[in-house]
Automatic annotation (TrEMBL):
Source domain of life: Bacteria
Signal peptide annotation: 1-21
Alphabetical keyword list: Signal
Domain Outer membrane protein beta-barrel: 21-177
Pfam families, A to Z: OMP_b-brl_2
Protein name stated in the entry: PorT family protein
Annotated organism of origin: Chitinophaga pinensis
Length: 201
């Protein structure tokens, strides 16, 4: 229910923005992503992954300096069990569990755009992520070690050369995605993305 309301709210914002926008661009992007999950029992090193999808640019001011940028992105990434996992989660630890964790997710960033000059844009906003596939067996009895939903804060910049976008971004996870019943430790996500996008309009 909460996920549905959140998605409905995001769609309402996008629809309302489109109705008042001075100009709309849309396109596709692909980025190399380095991500990690920080918390007790998880390896903190950044792991490489891939992210790609569609972006939309709505100009809200006539001088094209202010706007909003929603996106729909799909991610393939991974994480790794830490060497201390068995000690931290003694009761639930699966002794035959694999170390590597594979994650497939869909993300919806909703960003404010500010372009002091045409060639440079700064982004700031929030991102909702739903991890629809997590390949892991860290816990006994097929328990899920991870929660499915994550909300993050986004900051980044892009260089605009014609219809090409060179993108750099950082996402700080704000949600505890640890689903292990006890003990209660926080797991938070961190993402760094570098990539390129092409606007078709």
């Amino acid at each position: 229910m909460k996920k549905g309301l959140l998605l409905a709210g995001i769609l309402a914002v996008i629809t309302g923005t489109a109705a008042t926008a001075q100009r709309v661009n849309y396109g596709l992007k692909a980025t190399l992503m380095f991500s990690n999950v920080k918390g007790e029992g998880i390896n903190p090193n950044y792991k490489p992954g891939f992210q790609g999808g569609a972006f939309f640019e709505f100009d809200l001011s006539k001088d094209k300096k202010w706007g909003i940028q929603p996106e729909l992105l799909f991610t393939q990434t991974s994480a790794k069990k830490g060497n201390d996992f068995a000690q931290k989660y003694v009761t639930y630890h699966n002794t035959e569990g694999r170390d590597k964790i594979k994650i497939s997710a869909a993300s919806i960033p909703l960003l404010v755009r500010y372009s002091p000059i045409q060639a440079l844009t700064f982004n700031l906003g929030a991102q909702y992520t739903y991890m629809y596939f997590i390949d892991e067996n860290l816990l006994k009895a097929n328990r899920d070690a991870f929660k499915k939903s994550d909300i993050g804060a986004v900051a980044g910049a892009q260089v605009n050369v014609g219809n090409v976008r060179f993108i750099g971004r950082y996402v700080l996870g704000l949600t505890n995605i640890n689903n292990v019943p006890a003990p209660q430790y926080d797991w938070k996500t961190h993402q760094i993305t570098l990539g390129i996008g092409v606007a078709f309009k």
